[in-house]
Structure formats: C-alpha cells, structure tokens
Amino acid sequence: MTTQLPSAGTWIIEPSHSTIEAVAKHLRVTKVRGRFSSFEGKIVVPENPLEAQVSVTIDASSIDTNNADRDAHLRSDDFLAADTHDVLTFTSTAIREVGDDYAIDGELTMRGVTKPVTFEVTYGGLTQDPWGNTRALFAAEGSIDREEWGLTWNQALEAGGVLVSKKIAIELQIQLVQG
Hints:
The protein is mainly beta.
C-alpha cells in the first residue's frame, strides 16, 4: 500500500467526526440503524503499524435509532442490558494486510460475553484539518450473530421468519487525532 500509515504514537478517536452504528434487518427486509452517540477509543501505534493496539469503549445506553420506544427496548435486558452491562468494549488481537486494505481481529465484549470478531478496514490516509491537526481516516465493517452475546429476544412473524435479524452489521467511520 502506498498511502502513508499513521506515525508511531497514540491516536485518539475524535467522536464528533466519527460514527459507530449497528444495523439490523427488521421484518426480514428493511434495515434499522442504531448509532452509538457516546464512545471513546485509541490506537497505540508502534514502529510497525501492523502491531498497533486498538481499544474502544462504547456506552451501551447511548444507542439511538431515532425511536424512543425502540431505544428503550434495546437498552433493556432483552438486548443490551445497559443497566447491568453499561459498556461494550473492543480490543484488537491482530492487524493484517488484505490486498490494499486491512483486517482487524479482536474481542468484542457485550453483556459480559466476550467473542472474537473481525472488521474489514479501509484506510483513507492522513490529512491535515484547518487547525493544523493531523487526522487518520478509517472505515470499518463487520458483522456478528447477536445471539452469541445473549441478545436472543425475537418475535415470530405470521408470514414466516422473525421480526429482528440474528445478523447485525457493524459500521464505523473513524477520524483519529494524534494524542
């Protein structure tokens, strides 16, 4: 890859220019997006960027689907159990080159359950913002089977199938600033 990678040091997720979303299919076809509004994270980059360590913490109660009743249900014990498991965490275990892109393997903890996940990552390069800060730009996608983390609530549909998909897509748009 010819794009310059982030230099050694600690890079902090800049939340006002980053998004973390979960996407589920509803009624088998339409997609419902939930955006987490409160999160923090960092990437500690050593001399070899492929040995970087990624860590992210997400406030479970910050889920926002633009529907207050649905958000309350997602925060309940049927889904995120935000009262007893207030954060979701991701910690990387490996970073690999995949063609011109990357894969980040790691462990996602949700509802007290930790399982491996992999994100496909596109690196957008480094850029300078108008205030002279260097930013590193990333997009990442992955998916999970929510039932593996104990999010098993569902409702059978009269026409067949279930109300909420088991597969949840996770989509991230991340801007990092050197900390």
